[in-house]
Design a protein that fits this description.
The protein is an alpha/beta fold. It has nine helices and eleven strands. The strands form two sheets. It has a six-stranded mixed beta sheet. Strands 8-7-9-6-10 form a five-stranded mixed beta sheet. The structure holds 1-O-pyrophosphono-5-O-phosphono-alpha-D-ribofuranose.
Protein backbone atom coordinates (compact mmCIF):
# COMPACT_ATOMS: atom_id res chain seq x y z
CA UNK A 1 0.00 0.00 0.00
CA UNK A 2 2.87 2.33 0.89
CA UNK A 3 3.35 4.89 -1.86
CA UNK A 4 -0.10 5.01 -3.40
CA UNK A 5 -2.82 5.00 -0.77
CA UNK A 6 -5.51 7.64 -0.56
CA UNK A 7 -4.80 10.56 1.76
CA UNK A 8 -7.80 12.22 3.42
CA UNK A 9 -7.74 15.83 4.60
CA UNK A 10 -10.49 17.01 6.99
CA UNK A 11 -11.62 20.61 6.68
CA UNK A 12 -14.54 22.72 7.81
CA UNK A 13 -16.64 24.92 5.53
CA UNK A 14 -16.16 28.67 5.57
CA UNK A 15 -12.97 30.51 6.49
CA UNK A 16 -10.84 27.41 6.96
CA UNK A 17 -11.82 25.91 3.59
CA UNK A 18 -11.49 29.29 1.83
CA UNK A 19 -8.03 29.96 3.28
CA UNK A 20 -6.72 26.41 2.83
CA UNK A 21 -7.50 26.20 -0.91
CA UNK A 22 -4.84 28.81 -1.88
CA UNK A 23 -2.28 27.09 0.38
CA UNK A 24 -2.97 23.75 -1.30
CA UNK A 25 -2.66 25.47 -4.70
CA UNK A 26 0.72 26.90 -3.68
CA UNK A 27 1.73 23.37 -2.64
CA UNK A 28 0.81 22.12 -6.13
CA UNK A 29 -2.65 20.72 -5.36
CA UNK A 30 -5.40 22.32 -7.41
CA UNK A 31 -8.83 22.53 -5.78
CA UNK A 32 -11.87 23.91 -7.55
CA UNK A 33 -13.27 26.23 -4.80
CA UNK A 34 -16.81 25.71 -6.11
CA UNK A 35 -16.78 21.99 -5.12
CA UNK A 36 -17.83 23.15 -1.65
CA UNK A 37 -21.18 24.29 -3.13
CA UNK A 38 -22.04 20.73 -4.16
CA UNK A 39 -22.94 19.85 -0.54
CA UNK A 40 -21.05 16.60 -0.99
CA UNK A 41 -19.03 15.70 2.08
CA UNK A 42 -16.20 13.94 0.26
CA UNK A 43 -14.53 16.21 -2.25
CA UNK A 44 -11.86 15.51 -4.85
CA UNK A 45 -8.69 17.54 -5.38
CA UNK A 46 -6.46 17.81 -8.46
CA UNK A 47 -4.35 15.06 -6.91
CA UNK A 48 -6.14 11.71 -7.38
CA UNK A 49 -4.47 10.45 -4.17
CA UNK A 50 -5.76 13.33 -2.02
CA UNK A 51 -9.39 13.83 -1.09
CA UNK A 52 -11.03 16.24 1.34
CA UNK A 53 -13.83 15.60 3.79
CA UNK A 54 -16.06 18.40 5.06
CA UNK A 55 -16.85 18.25 8.78
CA UNK A 56 -17.81 20.63 11.57
CA UNK A 57 -14.81 22.67 12.76
CA UNK A 58 -14.95 21.13 16.23
CA UNK A 59 -15.05 17.60 14.74
CA UNK A 60 -11.83 17.94 12.67
CA UNK A 61 -9.51 16.73 15.50
CA UNK A 62 -11.80 13.76 16.16
CA UNK A 63 -11.67 12.52 12.54
CA UNK A 64 -7.87 12.86 12.54
CA UNK A 65 -7.42 11.33 16.01
CA UNK A 66 -9.23 8.15 14.94
CA UNK A 67 -7.46 8.03 11.57
CA UNK A 68 -10.67 8.52 9.53
CA UNK A 69 -8.73 11.46 8.12
CA UNK A 70 -4.94 11.45 7.85
CA UNK A 71 -4.69 15.22 7.99
CA UNK A 72 -6.84 18.11 9.08
CA UNK A 73 -6.93 21.86 9.42
CA UNK A 74 -8.14 23.05 12.82
CA UNK A 75 -8.04 26.27 14.79
CA UNK A 76 -5.91 26.38 17.92
CA UNK A 77 -9.15 27.21 19.77
CA UNK A 78 -10.65 23.90 18.69
CA UNK A 79 -7.43 21.95 19.38
CA UNK A 80 -7.21 23.30 22.93
CA UNK A 81 -10.77 22.18 23.64
CA UNK A 82 -10.14 18.76 22.08
CA UNK A 83 -6.87 18.20 23.96
CA UNK A 84 -4.81 17.08 20.95
CA UNK A 85 -4.50 13.37 21.88
CA UNK A 86 -2.98 11.30 19.08
CA UNK A 87 -2.37 14.36 16.94
CA UNK A 88 0.85 15.65 15.54
CA UNK A 89 0.71 19.42 14.92
CA UNK A 90 3.61 20.18 12.59
CA UNK A 91 2.60 23.41 10.88
CA UNK A 92 1.05 26.70 11.95
CA UNK A 93 -0.71 27.56 8.68
CA UNK A 94 -1.10 31.20 9.79
CA UNK A 95 -4.66 31.30 8.49
CA UNK A 96 -7.84 32.01 10.43
CA UNK A 97 -5.92 34.40 12.65
CA UNK A 98 -7.86 35.92 15.52
CA UNK A 99 -7.57 36.05 19.30
CA UNK A 100 -9.23 34.37 22.25
CA UNK A 101 -10.56 37.05 24.59
CA UNK A 102 -12.60 37.79 27.64
CA UNK A 103 -15.31 40.36 26.84
CA UNK A 104 -17.91 42.05 28.98
CA UNK A 105 -20.60 44.70 28.72
CA UNK A 106 -19.23 48.23 28.37
CA UNK A 107 -20.66 49.17 31.77
CA UNK A 108 -19.39 46.09 33.66
CA UNK A 109 -16.27 46.86 35.71
CA UNK A 110 -14.43 43.60 35.04
CA UNK A 111 -11.10 44.73 36.55
CA UNK A 112 -12.66 45.68 39.85
CA UNK A 113 -14.81 42.53 40.00
CA UNK A 114 -11.60 40.50 39.59
CA UNK A 115 -9.79 42.64 42.19
CA UNK A 116 -12.59 42.17 44.68
CA UNK A 117 -12.42 38.41 44.17
CA UNK A 118 -16.04 38.29 43.03
CA UNK A 119 -17.28 35.00 41.63
CA UNK A 120 -17.86 35.62 37.93
CA UNK A 121 -20.36 33.97 35.65
CA UNK A 122 -18.71 33.33 32.31
CA UNK A 123 -20.50 31.98 29.25
CA UNK A 124 -18.47 30.31 26.52
CA UNK A 125 -18.16 27.63 23.91
CA UNK A 126 -14.49 27.26 24.99
CA UNK A 127 -14.97 25.79 28.45
CA UNK A 128 -11.54 24.16 28.78
CA UNK A 129 -9.69 27.28 27.66
CA UNK A 130 -11.76 29.47 29.98
CA UNK A 131 -11.35 27.10 32.91
CA UNK A 132 -7.55 27.11 32.51
CA UNK A 133 -7.35 30.87 32.01
CA UNK A 134 -9.30 31.76 35.13
CA UNK A 135 -7.63 29.04 37.21
CA UNK A 136 -4.21 30.49 36.26
CA UNK A 137 -5.40 33.93 37.37
CA UNK A 138 -6.91 32.55 40.56
CA UNK A 139 -10.32 33.94 39.60
CA UNK A 140 -13.38 31.97 40.70
CA UNK A 141 -15.81 31.41 37.87
CA UNK A 142 -19.01 29.57 37.15
CA UNK A 143 -18.76 28.48 33.53
CA UNK A 144 -21.88 28.26 31.41
CA UNK A 145 -21.51 26.21 28.23
CA UNK A 146 -22.99 27.75 25.09
CA UNK A 147 -22.76 26.65 21.46
CA UNK A 148 -22.83 30.06 19.74
CA UNK A 149 -23.98 33.68 19.88
CA UNK A 150 -22.05 34.13 23.12
CA UNK A 151 -22.28 37.93 22.73
CA UNK A 152 -25.90 37.73 23.79
CA UNK A 153 -25.19 36.28 27.24
CA UNK A 154 -24.04 39.49 29.03
CA UNK A 155 -26.85 41.48 27.38
CA UNK A 156 -29.62 39.38 28.87
CA UNK A 157 -28.05 38.66 32.25
CA UNK A 158 -26.97 35.10 31.60
CA UNK A 159 -23.33 35.93 32.34
CA UNK A 160 -21.01 38.72 33.50
CA UNK A 161 -18.49 37.99 30.80
CA UNK A 162 -17.82 35.74 27.82
CA UNK A 163 -14.78 33.97 26.44
CA UNK A 164 -14.88 34.06 22.65
CA UNK A 165 -12.76 34.55 19.57
CA UNK A 166 -12.47 38.08 18.24
CA UNK A 167 -11.34 38.86 14.75
CA UNK A 168 -12.30 42.35 13.56
CA UNK A 169 -14.08 43.20 16.82
CA UNK A 170 -17.21 44.23 14.96
CA UNK A 171 -19.46 41.61 16.60
CA UNK A 172 -18.46 42.85 20.07
CA UNK A 173 -18.94 46.47 19.03
CA UNK A 174 -22.36 45.81 17.50
CA UNK A 175 -23.45 44.36 20.84
CA UNK A 176 -21.95 47.02 23.13
CA UNK A 177 -19.33 44.65 24.50
CA UNK A 178 -15.65 45.38 25.06
CA UNK A 179 -12.61 43.15 25.13
CA UNK A 180 -11.29 43.19 28.70
CA UNK A 181 -8.50 40.62 28.41
CA UNK A 182 -6.67 38.81 25.65
CA UNK A 183 -6.12 35.14 26.46
CA UNK A 184 -4.04 34.09 23.45
CA UNK A 185 -3.58 34.57 19.72
CA UNK A 186 -5.28 31.93 17.57
CA UNK A 187 -4.50 30.55 14.12
CA UNK A 188 -5.21 27.33 12.25
CA UNK A 189 -2.84 24.38 12.41
CA UNK A 190 -2.25 21.42 10.17
CA UNK A 191 -2.84 18.30 12.22
CA UNK A 192 -1.70 14.79 11.32
CA UNK A 193 -2.71 11.37 12.59
CA UNK A 194 0.42 9.94 14.21
CA UNK A 195 -0.04 6.45 12.75
CA UNK A 196 -0.66 7.82 9.24
CA UNK A 197 2.54 9.78 9.46
CA UNK A 198 4.40 6.48 9.80
CA UNK A 199 2.40 4.24 7.45
CA UNK A 200 1.94 6.85 4.70
CA UNK A 201 5.20 8.73 5.23
CA UNK A 202 6.23 8.73 1.55
CA UNK A 203 3.06 10.63 0.66
CA UNK A 204 2.56 12.73 3.76
CA UNK A 205 6.14 13.95 4.32
CA UNK A 206 6.44 15.69 0.90
CA UNK A 207 2.98 17.22 1.36
CA UNK A 208 3.99 18.63 4.76
CA UNK A 209 7.18 20.05 3.25
CA UNK A 210 5.25 21.66 0.36
CA UNK A 211 2.68 23.16 2.74
CA UNK A 212 5.37 24.49 5.09
CA UNK A 213 7.03 26.14 2.10
CA UNK A 214 3.70 27.58 0.90
CA UNK A 215 3.15 29.09 4.36
CA UNK A 216 6.65 30.61 4.42
CA UNK A 217 6.15 32.13 0.99
CA UNK A 218 2.71 33.46 1.87
C1 LIG B 1 -16.81 34.16 15.68
C2 LIG B 1 -16.95 34.60 17.13
C3 LIG B 1 -17.59 35.93 17.03
C4 LIG B 1 -17.13 36.45 15.69
C5 LIG B 1 -16.03 37.43 15.89
O1 LIG B 1 -17.95 33.52 15.29
O2 LIG B 1 -17.69 33.65 17.88
O3 LIG B 1 -19.00 35.82 17.09
O4 LIG B 1 -16.61 35.36 14.95
O5 LIG B 1 -15.63 38.03 14.66
P1 LIG B 1 -15.46 39.60 14.54
O6 LIG B 1 -14.57 40.04 15.67
O7 LIG B 1 -14.78 39.79 13.20
O8 LIG B 1 -16.80 40.24 14.59
P2 LIG B 1 -18.02 32.74 13.90
O9 LIG B 1 -18.32 33.68 12.79
O10 LIG B 1 -16.78 31.92 13.74
O11 LIG B 1 -19.29 31.85 14.08
P3 LIG B 1 -19.57 30.65 15.08
O12 LIG B 1 -18.66 30.79 16.27
O13 LIG B 1 -20.98 30.83 15.44
O14 LIG B 1 -19.28 29.43 14.26
Amino acid sequence: MEGNSMITLALSKGRIFDDTVPLLAAAGIAVDPSVIESRRLILPTGDPQLRMIVVRASDVPTYVQYGAADLGVAGKDVLLEHGGDGLYQPIDLRIGRCRMCVAAARDFDYASAVRRGARLRVATKFVETARRHFADKGVHVDLIKLYGSMELAPLVGLADAIVDIVSTGSTLKANNLVEVEEIMPISSRLIVNQASLKTKATQIRPLLAALAQAVDQG
